[in-house]
Amino acid sequence: MLNLNSAFLNGTNILNMSIEEPQKRAADLTRNYERDLNIIEFCQELYVFKEQAPLLFGDTEKANGFYLLLSMIYAHDLQDAFSNTCMALRFLLYLQAMNEVLAN
């Protein structure tokens, strides 16, 4: 089963958390993927994302899934600005799909 700590990476949860909470969870997630994610950049991205997402995307509460949030980032051509966030979302999408395959 997908770790619930990664559920912070959706529009609703990020916006409803304090500034520190997504950064703490990002640091925890990054420890599992040290070769792929930069902890400092990822935490900075989430800080910027939390503050700017409502202005950039409008209603981010509609982005309640990893795929929807990733799609919104790509639709606005922000994948370079949020490269670690995109990588983490792709990891989580893969893990979510594998969990579903293995459950069946």
Any overview of this molecule?
It is a single chain. The protein has helices spanning 11-16, 20-32, 39-57, 66-75, 83-103. With 104 residues, it is mostly helical. The chain has one domain (4-103). Helix 2 packs across helix 3 (39-57) and helix 4 (66-75) runs antiparallel to helix 5. The longest helix has 21 residues, at 83-103. It starts with 10 loop residues before the first helix and ends with a helix. The relative contact order is 0.18.
Unreliable sequence segments: none
Helix content: 55-70%
Largest sheet: none
Query: Proportion of β residues?
Result: under 5%
Rg to the nearest angstrom?
13 Å
Q: Total domains, how many?
A: 1
For the terminal residues, how far apart are their CA atoms? 12 Å
What is the number of strand segments?
Answer: 0
Q: In DSSP terms, counting alpha (H) and pi (I) runs of 4 or more, how many helices? A: 5
What shape does the CA trace take?
Answer: globular
H/E order of the elements? Answer: HHHHH
Mean pLDDT: 82
The SS-based structural class is mainly alpha
